[in-house]
Amino acid sequence: MKHHNSRHLPQSSPSDHPSFASDHGSAMKEIARGQSLVTQLRAIVLPALQADQRCELVAQMFQNILDCSSKAITELQLQHQSDDDALVDDKKRVRRISSDDCTKEEGATANPRHQHKRRRSDDLVSLETPVPHYDGRQWRKYGQKHINKAKHPRSYYRCTYSKEQGCKATKTVQQQDESTGTDNPVMYTVVYHGQHTCKDNNGVDSGTDESETNTQSSSDRRSSISITSTDPCDHQISLGDNKLIGKSADLVTKSLYEPLNMNPFAPLDLDCWELDALLRFQLEPDN
DNA sequence: CTCATTTGACCTCC
DNA sequence: GGAGGTCAAATGAG
């Protein structure tokens, strides 16, 4: 594996399919860019609002913004997929099918522990962020590895609900080597693998296929902000990190596509809740 | 006691 | 064979 900073999409790259690139690529790119910027903004705002009771409201509004753009991206992806089905002679795809179905499956069934395979590069998404843990998801660390020629170790996380709900989403977090200067904020390369098929603590279905009515009351909702790290190299922005927060506002993400909230059919039943909360806070602006 | 993290071993892929 | 990814026992925190 070489470098995670290149842009990735869960499906094959738009650049592989000129028709798609011309029809949908720029639109998806712009939507995804907006999504990524919103995610970055959320990562900056939410830590600063931790002690504020509006935190939950703000978090939910961010979530809804991301849901909207996710829907748009998914629509474009679905259109693209129908075109993509015809293009099955992709070399990587052929290689993946042959190695997965034939060569390795026998060994995997013979010994369950031999199931872990090196990840494929076609379902990963990378981004650079100063706040690798405030991504709206809950993660459990399952490994850490020193990477060759890297100053900092790479941490491996999987979805907290991987066992309970079989969610296969994982991510790796690695501090960038060049972010050691005093003026530059510490930056991390976060690489997401797979998509969430679980429901997070908000009761929001984060999978791609399930659509289930969310009847959970607002009082039952809990924040699902990921605060998972105890890793000494994985710094988090705290309320006191104002310098970092200020500088982070200028950061431009390099991700094309934010996988965290790629739930195209998540029920957006929060409008009433939002309006109610907004009215409440307008009446009580300093609470 | 429970659960998350750490860490060395082991695995697959290149 | 080296590098990257995952497992699982050990460890520690709450």
TrEMBL record:
<dbReference type="InterPro" id="IPR003657">
    <property type="entry name" value="WRKY_dom"/>
</dbReference>
<feature type="region of interest" description="Disordered">
    <location>
        <begin position="199"/>
        <end position="232"/>
    </location>
</feature>
<dbReference type="InterPro" id="IPR044810">
    <property type="entry name" value="WRKY_plant"/>
</dbReference>
<keyword id="KW-0539">Nucleus</keyword>
<protein>
    <recommendedName>
        <fullName>WRKY domain-containing protein</fullName>
    </recommendedName>
</protein>
<dbReference type="GO" id="GO:0005634">
    <property type="term" value="C:nucleus"/>
</dbReference>
<feature type="region of interest" description="Disordered">
    <location>
        <begin position="98"/>
        <end position="123"/>
    </location>
</feature>
<keyword id="KW-0238">DNA-binding</keyword>
<dbReference type="Pfam" id="PF03106">
    <property type="entry name" value="WRKY"/>
</dbReference>
<keyword id="KW-0805">Transcription regulation</keyword>
<feature type="compositionally biased region" description="Basic and acidic residues">
    <location>
        <begin position="98"/>
        <end position="107"/>
    </location>
</feature>
<feature type="region of interest" description="Disordered">
    <location>
        <begin position="1"/>
        <end position="25"/>
    </location>
</feature>
<dbReference type="InterPro" id="IPR036576">
    <property type="entry name" value="WRKY_dom_sf"/>
</dbReference>
<feature type="domain" description="WRKY">
    <location>
        <begin position="135"/>
        <end position="175"/>
    </location>
</feature>
<keyword id="KW-0804">Transcription</keyword>
<dbReference type="GO" id="GO:0043565">
    <property type="term" value="F:sequence-specific DNA binding"/>
</dbReference>
<dbReference type="GO" id="GO:0003700">
    <property type="term" value="F:DNA-binding transcription factor activity"/>
</dbReference>
